[in-house]
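Record pair follows.
FIRST:
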Amino acid sequence: MNGGRVRPAIERMTGFDAGFLYMETPSVHMHTLKIAILEADDALSYDAFVAGILARLKRLPPLRRRVVEVPFGLNHPVWVTQRRIDVPHHIRRHRIGGPDNEGSMHDLEQLIGIIASTPLHRDRPLWELHYCEGLEGGRVAVVGKMHHALADGAAANALLANVTDVRSAATPEAVQEEYATTDRLPSKVNLLRHAWADAARQLLDLPDLLRRTFRGVRGVVRARRAGANAPVPVLHAPRVSFNGALTPLRSFATVTLPLAELKRIRLQHDGVTLNDIVLATTSGALRRWLAAHDEHPASSLLAGVPVSTDERGAVPRLGGNQVSNLFTTLATDVDDPVQRLRRISETTAHAKEIHAQLGASILVDWSQFTPPRPFAAAVRAYSRLRAASWHPAAFSAIVSNVPGPREPAAVGGARLADLFSVGPLVDGIGLNVTVWSYVDRMNFSLLACPDLLPDVQVLASYFPAALAELDLEPPASSETPDQRISS
């Protein structure tokens, strides 16, 4: 688009990215969280952190993009790249604990719950960074809050690589003024003209998409007839207390397990994957939580598992979403932990087969044809009426596993001690468990709606024992399983 002498960079949002905007309501926030725990030791002051981020804006293109709606919702919105950001709005400072005492990880988790409970403003680039000082041991936490429309887990990983070591040996220059601009937003006429042109090009893809969808559905039918048995959302999901209409409030908790421990246990069970171990550990923790709350669903809980659709070896993306979902059992109706793991592994393999038959990109491609205004209006009405409480949830919980950095990293000279991440909740699903690995650790982050699941910290405390019960050959030690696993 070029309707004037100077214009900002403009890019049409994909229907899939825009879908995260349409799904957002006053009680459903579609942002993700990334939490970096830094061993600062005065190596990374707030001012140095801000200067380092400004010095890296060119390497962080999503941080300069804001959403501009198309008049009348005739097509998906556009991204407009701004060359200047409002630093006080986007980068905020917090003190954990009091002036005379250090803050704990629990204090940080409570603050993160508050940060997660408020939406991002659409009239600015969709992100915030919260610099949280005062943690015990002189540590600093940086909480990144980014709308899912900007980036999925894989893209966030690539962005993280461009944030680490934000300060070189030389003092970074704050380059905010370099980006100063008087560019105006695109005119309504320009937005409409290009919306129609993009929609016409889109329609040319429809015949091929219909053919691929027909082949995919036919492949799914064949796979199920051949024995591929995976749960069907809504039909196979039991009712539990943390499935229902969301409120705006969020609570947050973490637990860390050694990556070597998960890998060692995986080798004890033929044919299972590391992701199967993650699902089985989540299942064991949920079984304990359900029993403590006297909930006994008649069938197993189901997991919605986001999966990346990026091709293996693809160049890292710095934005956008290439993700689909598969649905599998958590086998919470199986008492024996080994049999539970086996059921999860077998069902997840079938779910992957069905997902592959349908085609990983089908959902993304069809989302291009989502009508923006009607879809967003329907979602808002569904949320306003609290309709998620009227029927069984599509599935029980979101469980995601994203490989994180394999090597130790630093930010502004401060060692990155730990890294956590969690995605958003969707209406009807009051729990998200996201796992990010960092070097030798598997960091589980739990985001919940406290009006549906009031004690997410208690649920997090069950994960170490849930992993230990999968261990067929526990090391000889006088320690209890919970002591052997850092939490």
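SECOND:
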Amino acid sequence: MSESSSTEQSLADRGSNRSQRPQSAAFIDWVTSGWAERPASTAERGAAADFTAARRARLSAQFPGQRLVIPAGAFKVRSNDTDYRFRPHSAFAHLTGLGAEQEPDAVLVLHPVEDGAGDEVPGGGRSRHHAVLYMRPLASRDTEEFFADARYGEFWVGARPTLDDMATVTGIATAHSNELRDALAKDVGPDGVRLLVVPEVDEAVEAVVEEIRSTPQAELDARLVEALSELRLIKDEHEVAELRSAVAATAAGFEQMVRRLPEAVAHRRGERVIEGTFLAKAREEGNYVGYETIAAAGAHATTLHWTDNDGQVRTGELVLVDAGVEVDSLYTADITRTLPVTGTFTADQRRVYQAVLDAADAAFAVAVPGNRFRDVHAAAMEVIAARLAEWGMLPVSAEESLSPEGQQHRRWMVHGTSHHLGLDVHDCAQARREMYLDAVIEPGMVFTIEPGLYFQADDLRVPAELRGIGVRIEDDVLITADGNENLSAALPRTPDEVERWMATLLP
């Protein structure tokens, strides 16, 4: 073969070499004809639609006169011509109610309007914006996309929703993606509409925005990202219900993992048995896992984010499992239990476990309205420092260690005690410090409480009998008007409860 003939087909076109799809007019005529009428639409207004309208109205109030662009995101390549499973950006999901694998390449735009002309808000009033969802609708069967497009075509991935169906489900006006650029550019200018976009979500959309507004406006975009994050600090009724579902599915997954512990012990990579068991439950009951499962047996439990999960599970040791089911709406649980592999704690394991449990209980006691978010961590640390001092592990007193100048106890718990939870496992992460760490706890907040102690196997500052023991206990907490509710309370927490529970599940 000559050099010219080997390069005449572009690299971009070579991916089609494997398809062997016929190009004849006869084939195209045949494949695009002879189809029955599509069935009548069964689309119904989604359960989240009223809640998302209220969320958009709250966002709208913060950005009068500004056009807000919130992309769902695009497919991301995993390898060559295969993509990762699509998951929409959390801000897009929060404002549209679309979850699971909906809706790649879609863009939600909040167009500024004159007072009184905006979208209706449930309960009365109008928004200061008109929301439009731009998307790729179901292609007609006489188009090439229908049968030839492996990423979007109906033959390959199933039928996409129509514009009308999506409008019905979301309660948001819809338009074809082809109309997006002109819609974004309308009235944009130095004395006109400002155009803001959530960055680093969809490169193509971001490029269009940058072209239209001609000068970078990163500070404005950052303010939008911040506002979208803070919008999720207080969960509404629908969000709490979804989180309850995620927690329930996660609890069922933990039961399955305990049942399979004997198989995990027998397998050379028993941690993978645990991980795979939970992943199966997550796919059966939800969309996916909310984050990569940690199944850390023995000394692996002292590595905070052990996700390799390629180790053995041995009798007599503990296994720390940190896992959460992400339901179809994309809300996720985040629960950790540290379990004795054979169902019974040793005296040393129980001692460490009880210290962590006491720290968690102290954190629960202050996780109430009126206190500050940072108080939850402080309460847990008081217990952790006191226990370490009792065991002779600190070079100073517990009080000195707790001072800003000390912090020696943090050698064995370097992470924080709590983080907000919702659409992201670390939800609201772009919120301002005064809205997060320094914030007053309010009803409707949902966050984790997850103290731990991690004594690495080669840590000479740890008593020999405790080396290689890692314990974390993590629960998902809803702040109520008069205190808090442990959403994950169905999973046992105390050592005695854990042992009794495991005894009912192990053969």
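COMMENT: The first strand starts at residue 66 and ends at 71.
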